[in-house]
Amino acid sequence: MTDDAAAALEPGRRIETLDELTEEQADSVLALIADAARTDGTTAVSEQGRLQLRGGPREGIRHFLLTEKGRLAGYGQLEDTDPVEAPAAELVVHPSMRGRGHGRALGTALLAASGKRIRVWAHGGKSAARHLAQVLGLTLFRELRQLRRPLGPDAAPLPEPVLPPGVTVRTFVPGADDTAWLVANAAAFAHHPEQGSLTQRDLNDRVAQPWFDAKGFFLAERDGELVGFHWTKVHAEQRLGEVYVVGVRPGAQGGGLGKALTAIGLRHLAAAGLPTAMLYVDADNPAALAVYEGLGFSTHEIDLMYRTES
Fold first, then answer.
1. Are β-strands 13-18 and 167-171 bridged in parallel, bridged antiparallel, or unpaired?
2. Minimal CA–CA distance to 218: which of 235, 200, 197, 233?
3. What is the mean pLDDT of residues 120-125?
4. pTM
5. 237, exposed or middle or buried, with CB in 10 Å at 0-12, 13-18, 19+?
6. In this predicted model, what pLDDT tens digit does every residue of 89-121 receive, in sequence order?
7. Measured between alpha carbons, how far is 299 from 158 in angstroms, rounded to an integer?
């Protein structure tokens, strides 16, 4: 359907709200996101948001296509899947079409569609995004830090992984380990609304990506039970390795398993010849920050999340 109120704000502007995108629309949105990333130095729509562009309708997901005189000028996505938190949104305007109020129009449409209860990501914390959040009446809610660490021959040596007694590590087997990993992931991230809610469909989406490599997906077991994991990712174009997700089930926390798994994954990335590793961590998680800083990581970039007042 078309948001006629938003469209009326500017002659020639139209905002269409859809439950799913065609392949052609998804391609156009991905091209817009890529153009913006080349200009901004960071991607305005997260990996999860990009994966949700294809594959048909998804519960709680809506897409907002802003066109100006028939040309795609901006994109917004609203995800209303968390039973407690406000809907989460991301948006981007093509670099060549900024300064025309498109960002404000998209933000206003997303705000209205959410019932004026929303959380919005500003990846990279750019000044324009901070200004838009202020215009929309949003306040800073969350700070997500991207940390990086050199892995090359001149970098500080990585620590030897020391596993707790009785724990062994092997690599993930797609299909055979799916259910056990989803259960362990939900337990490890019960406090984390994004990571902890991953489904089989979300896992399938990632396994189907060109970057997926089961050899870089490490599972820790004790007495046949999956107690922790470290899933690494390689960004081939940037020659960048990622500590994609490290999780330890509550009953296995506190014994050094997370640190050992992190070291195993980092050694894998270093052995692949990658010069740098990166990861994301919440700024309000001092324990995790201390572990990663102790492993030689430092802040490279900051993502900010804004929200309406509770």
1. unpaired
2. 233
3. 84
4. 0.80
5. exposed
6. 999 999 999 999 999 999 999 999 999 999 998
7. 18
DSSP strands (E only) in 160-297: 167-171, 217-222, 225-235, 240-248, 276-282
Could you give the angle at the alpha carbon of 62 between the alpha carbons of 59 and 68, nearest 5°? 165
Tens digit of each residue's pLDDT (9 = 90 or more) over 40-98 = 988 999 999 999 999 999 999 999 999 999 999 999 999 998 878 899 999 999 999 99
Query: What pairs with residue 248 in β-bridges?
Result: 228
Map residue 247 onto helix, strand or coil: strand
The answer to whether 228 and 188 are in contact (CB under 8 A) is: yes
d(CA 174, CA 179): 10
More confident residue, 265 or 128: 265
What one-character DSSP code corresponds to residue 161? P
Q: Which two tokens stand for residue 193?
A: 């609304």
For the chain, the farthest-separated pair of C-alpha atoms sits apart, in whole angstroms, at: 68
H helix intervals, 189-277: 200-207, 257-271
